[in-house]
Amino acid sequence: MRNYHIGIVLFCTILNLSAVAQQLSVNGLRTEYRSNPMGIDAAEPRLSWKIISSRRNTMQTAYQIRVGTDSAGLSAGKAVVWDSGNQKSDASVFVRYGGALLKSGTRYFWQVRIKDNHGNSAAWSTVNSWHTGLLRPAEWTAQWISTSSADTVAGPSPIFRKVFASEGKVKSAVLYITAHGLYEAQLNGKRIGNDHLAPGWTSYHKRLLYQSYEVTSLLKEGQNAIGFTLGDGWYRGYLAFDRRRDFYGKRLSALVQLVIEYTNGTKKTVNSDGSWKYNTGPILRSDLYNGEIYDARLEKGDWATANYNDTNWKNATTIQADKEVLESSISPLATKHEQFSVLKVITTPKGETVLDFGQNLVGWVSFKLSAKAGSYIQLEHGEVLDKAGNFYDANLRHAKQHVKYIFKGGGLESYEPHFTYQGFRYVKITGDLAKIDPSSFKAIAVYSNMDPTGTFNTSNPLLNQLQHNIQWGQKGNFMDVPTDCPQRDERLGWTGDAQVFFRTAAFNMDVAGFFTKWMKDVASDQLSNGSIPFVIPNVLGSNDAGSTGWGDVATIIPWNMYIAYGDKEILATQYPSMKGWVDFMTSKSKDDLWNTGFHFGDWLFYRPNDDNDGRSAITDKYLIAQAFYAHSTQLLVNTARVLGKKSEEEKYTELLDRIKKAFLKEYITPNGRMVSGSQTAYVLALNFDMLPENLRPQAVDFLVRNIESYGNHLTTGFLGTPYLCHVLSRFGRTDVAYRLLLQETYPSWLYPVKMGATTIWERWDGIKQDGSFQTTDMNSFNHYAYGAIGDWMYRVMAGLDTDESAPGYKKITVAPQPGGNISHAAAELETLYGLAVSDWKIENGFFKLKVVIPANASGQIRLPGAANASVTEGGIALNAIKGFGKIVTSGKDMEFSVGSGTYQFEYPIKL
């Protein structure tokens, strides 16, 4: 009996210890936004973690980090190279490494433990790591290698190889690699990494990224072989509209450095040099715009293995190229994601065979087929079918998007393209195959490898499809740079498109690394006078720069990255670029009025039939310029304040006051009307606080009357659309915002949805109501800019937002604004602190709201229509629950603060 009682006590003790352990733990470790990253070149990497707690109102009160170079030793508290000691702080994101100077090519392991405000201590976390790249240019001992002569035409892709010996037991092996062009690398016949279109796209003469790959598992004792294939890519392939090639150079080349560390402490480095051999293989042509020609009869077998006979191969040529521009890759490269089977096989009215994959996507088609040697299959890619149901690709302009495969014969052959990608839903099949088996084909989505972070859904199926289209527009156009479109002869990093979409993008996916990289490109290509090119990387020239709403990418994205992620470093890094853009606008202004130069204006705004009443939704381009001039100056003021630049904060605050006064004098009548009476004019004036408070109510009235005069349709273009619903909600007209959002006829967000769109269109009426198309010169069916409405749906409709006083979702705002006969809306976002949720529904006359605030964050809740209601949380009257902040009423709403935890609010509502 005594043993029985002892057993019971031990069992209960274990249960209690387990409960304590479950109350507080740490996971989600990240170094510079990434888990176990390779090639970090930051001198003091920033470390972040997430806190898991089963208790409400949990805040971190202290942390301790330890770093070492041996995982097992670190876990045992040994071989520690830095110990932060016990730091009394609630910081759990962007905590800087503070130890000794980091060494190149070294893996560092780290873990963290914390304490919370309830007196709990978490155990040490699991061990995470980061690996440093080559931190100094002199550490690159490899040589650039190329073929013996430059090829200025689209020709075969060269392949290179090198045999080397590995002597001894390998502790680690890391490959550092980059190229002028695109590369695919192999070690002993195995592909290295999952990245595609590497090393990505930058202004190569200013910044060239290299990648670092852990390849230890691919090495074997004795003879090994390393090899790579090169493609034209952005470096020397076709770019932009006028069929130009060789923008960055005419010669493909690569730089390869394999560092092997043995368990006995010795190292061996295998460098690219003149001893490498090269040949050409089966890729006869591969171009980003025009597709690929692949002749399987020319395959070289196991050419990247040690036993391959390369006697007839030529020696590589070493060339001189700058290593000072090399930087470690910080952004996610393109990888393969979703796969789609053929939805149906179509025989068109023209008698052509077309595969329908059911989704407009970006990537390529893979297949497994058999055919006799010398026969071929050609895949032609298009986004839509025409009015008659025939394959359509006229909107691609000069881009071909053709993939041709020539069979070697002898059995089943597998293929997918290498240095190209296509934007498509439909694929026309031509060639020698008599019969097509649809199960032999797969469409593979390819885009930058960003983790999904946000979800959004409602009770309205059309809005859910709109959200789907927004997400797929982002996936298709985030291909190392944020492109305008992924299919025609353009695919450029248009700055205006990117800035209007950023907040939406940051909800859908983790875009921190993606935009950190691209904003460095913006600063790199910024002109000496501070002007920002229309596209980044700039392949259009120095004259194609300086347009309002496009150049403002220099201020808008860094500030919004700070708001979305709480990252002050992006502000510090981009501050000179931000300041340069504002100073450029100032230099072009007279009496504080910017009314010079070329501007795109409110691009692709709705143009009604002027035969009816002689009006059009044209907004004065200089009015727009002045509004964005003020906005960028305001963001620069905000940034100077965050960075502690007091004198510059005061300087630009004074400038901002003068800009707004000049705006009022030039564009506002004494009675408060604007010289442009368009929706965009009023939206920008209201959104950027260009009007004194006494003129704002009538400006809102003018805006609403304008919307109603168009039958509750929007008339805005690229620059007005992102702010339209936000302005209406801010000034108490969420009802009108819902009318616009739920409008199903042209022009509206849901018109393309009703027309069968699976992505966002470039034009409001890319396909007209009669089935005909807009102009072939500019009619993309995968263009994310108008998807910026997602930001309003997440932050206002679902009500999930971050407080700018504690950015990065350290303080979370939950303030849903229901309307439009929507009975349910939910947004979930994986923040740097953990999952945040705002999920509301109206059911049987009750408003029910689920809120999740992650540990180490707090929330501010605003319950719509709850001012005089009996509110419960978890079935208990709100005023009977401890732990909430002071409950106050604001109009019809109720507000209060909460700590972390999951909450279920419910109350009767009349809306």
UniProtKB/TrEMBL annotation:
Residues 1-21 form the signal peptide. It catalyses: Hydrolysis of terminal non-reducing alpha-L-rhamnose residues in alpha-L-rhamnosides. Residues 453-796 form the Alpha-L-rhamnosidase six-hairpin glycosidase domain. Residues 347-447 form the Alpha-L-rhamnosidase concanavalin-like domain. Its EC number is 3.2.1.40. One of its GO terms (molecular function) is alpha-L-rhamnosidase activity. SUPFAM superfamilies: Six-hairpin glycosidases. Residues 804-873 form the Alpha-L-rhamnosidase C-terminal domain. It is an enzyme of class 3 (hydrolase). This is alpha-L-rhamnosidase. It comes from Pedobacter steynii.
